[in-house]
Amino acid sequence: MTQIELDRQLPGGSVHNSTLVGLAAAVGLLREMTNGHPGELLWMGSGDWAGSPLPGLVRQALAGPGRPDRLLVLIDGTCRVAEVAPWLDEPDPGRVTVRTARRLPHDLLIVDRHAVLVPAGGGADEPLLAVVREPVSVRTMRGLFGTVWGGAAARGELSEHVVLGEDDVKQRILELLAEGAKDAVIARKLGVSLRTCRRHVAEILLELGAVSRFQAGAAAARLGLVAARRAVCDSP
Which of 34, 102, 165, 217 is deepest in the core (most CB within 10 A)? Predict the structure, then answer.
C-alpha cells in the first residue's frame, strides 16, 4: 500500500507518522497502547479479507486476558463471515455487537481513541499493518465509523426491499442532501424507512469521504454529481 493510498483511506489528516508492523508486533502494540485492557475496539470489515491480519488480531484481542469492554463490528453484508471469522457467529451479547452495511470501503480497526490499524500489504506469511496515531485521522475515522454504525442493520436485517434501483435511490438522496433535506424528509419522499434512509446516507458519506450530511451535499454539488443528474433529467 502506497502513502497516497493510505492518505485516501484516512481522510482528515496526514498519516506520515504511521508505522508498519507485523501481526505479532501489532498484538503487543495494542496491549501497550491500552495498558493491556482496551476499552473499545471498532472493526470495519470490508469483506476483502484475503491476507488481512485484522480478523486474527481481533480474535486474539477477544481471547486474551485483557479483552475489550466493547467490540463493535461493521461487516459488509455481502461477505461470507462464516468462512473468515466464524467466531463472530457466537458473539458475547454483553461485549460484542455486529451490524452489517453494504459496500464498506475499508478494512480497519480503531483502538479506543489511540490509533487506527489498516492492512498494508506484506506477504501471506507476515501481513503488515499500518498503525496511524495522528489525532485528526483517528477522530475522522471514528466519526465515519459512527456515521455508518448509526445507519447499519443488525445481522440478518439487510434485505429490506427498495422499490427504486439502489443507484437511483442514492442519486435522489444526493439531490435531497444538496437541497438540505433532513433524513425524515428524505425517507418520506423515497417511501423507505428511516433506518434504510440513514443506511444509504452513511454509505454516501463514506463514498464521498464526508463526515456530515451538509459536507456530502456540498461535495456532490462540487463534483457535479447532482448537476449531471439534473441535466440528464431535464434534457428532452
Answer: 217
What residues are paired with 130 via a beta bridge?
20, 118
User: How confident is the model over 72-127, as pLDDT tens digits?
Assistant: 988 876 665 555 566 666 656 678 888 877 777 778 999 988 899 988 876 667 77
* Count of structural domains, the chain: 2
**Do 139 and 177 have their domain in common?**
no
**Of 100, 129, 154, which residue sits at a domain end?**
154
pTM of the model: 0.61
Give the list of residues 6+ apart from residue 68 with CB closer than 8 angstroms, or none.
37, 38, 39, 40, 41, 61, 62, 95
Q: Which residues of the chain have pLDDT under 50?
A: 1-16, 158-165, 228-236
- Asked if 14 and 94 sit in the same domain, the reply is yes
